[in-house]
């Protein structure tokens, strides 16, 4: 579903501020893979997601989504393949619009718009049913403006919007990092439910080693712009934080220096 080959990116090339963020990175995701991505600050995690999303063009290498080469495809055109949830709960929704209006916009994404009056009854019933599955009491608040929701509720709605049309690839960019631990756990439960039920191919960046181990079927760890650890299946299920740190030390020759990832 995703194939990245020899991906390279240097920011501010040719200047004293030049910074190489990705070094010939290779990555393949099978259809239905739920891959968690972890690494320290500057490891290249968000740079990788932005490359896939088309925020910038790589210096070298190719990106394919479901067999389509999107390397040179502009961000707005490749959006039809992708769903994305950002770290900031304020992104991804229109705060001055109601919940059902936000969902309606997401449902029409990538389709030709017609001059129809408002949101149909059948659509509202569908949205209410989907919101009920989130178990946040939002199914009775369709007319509530999204800006009035809590951070966790807003992230849950954003996650629902990003997956309404079953994207080829779901990108989760530390989507629980700005939430308190209890709310973050609830949003991760909702994430697991949506990803599993819809069999979505997913790439989830997290700063939390325990979350990276507990969620998904595969874990990759990045360091200095490349993937140095890639575990899946039974090997991943048996991992502990201590095991992951030991693997990192062996692969990089250094100790992992991000206390937030270890202690979260």
Folded structure, characterized:
The protein has one domain: P-loop containing nucleotide triphosphate hydrolases (Rossmann fold). It has helices spanning 45-53, 75-78, 99-107, 121-134, 151-163, 181-198, 209-214, 233-237, 241-252, 259-263; strands at 2-11, 19-29, 34-39, 60-65, 68-69, 82-85, 169-173, 202-205, 218-223, 226-232. The chain is 36% helix and 23% strand. A six-stranded mixed β-sheet has the order 6-7-8-3-9-10, sandwiched between helices. Strands 2-1-4-5 form a four-stranded antiparallel β-sheet, covered by helices on one side. The chain is an alpha/beta fold and 264 residues long. Helix 3 (99-107) packs parallel to helix 5 and helix 5 (151-163) packs parallel to helix 6 (181-198). It contains ten helices and ten strands.
Radius of gyration: 19 Å
CATH domain class? Alpha Beta
Low-confidence stretches: none
DSSP helical segment count: 10
How far from one another are the termini? 31 Å
How would you write the strand order of the largest sheet?
6-7-8-3-9-10
The number of strands is: 10
- Major sheet attributes: 6 strands, mixed
Run of helices and strands: EEEHEEHEHHHEHEHEEHHH
Approximate strand percentage: 15-25%
Average pLDDT, to the nearest integer?
A: 91
Shape: globular
Q: Examine the coordinates and then state which fold CATH places here, giving the name of the CATH topology.
A: Rossmann fold
CATH architecture: 3-Layer(aba) Sandwich
